[in-house]
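If you are new to this repository, start here. Below is one unmodified record pulled from the training split, so you can see the exact layout before writing a loader.
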Amino acid sequence: MPTKTPNALLRLRKHADYQRVYTSSRKQFTKQMAFFYSLRPEDRRSETPGARVGLTVGKVLGNAVERNRIKRRLRECVRRHISTLTFPVDVILHPRRTVLEMDPKKLDAEVAQIFRTVEASLHKTVRVPEAV
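And here is the target side for that same chain:
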């Protein structure tokens, strides 16, 4: 059985997980993409302790070459900023077609902003147990 790379462990892969995030959260928007996020239930946390990110890049965004380019660009941004997320959360990024022509630094900043928004929102809603 092949070993999983660190990036593979951070990916959201199962259809059921995508559906759970879609139904348990609301769509939020930034300038270049929409995103969804949801805390992972206790029974789904064993496989990956930290955050997982999924990408949805549909056929409406272009041909296979363009869709793959969008995914590669987003994966690189996610890899750089995934450490921002400290909760066991699943995040789905749904980019717009403009991501193809976007400056890489701006895309990087937008993904970083999304992760900061998710982290801040979870800090507000999740009570962290105090040390005794």
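Two things worth knowing about this chain: Residues 23 and 121 are 18 Å apart (CA to CA). Helices lie at 6-9, 15-24, 64-81, 104-125.
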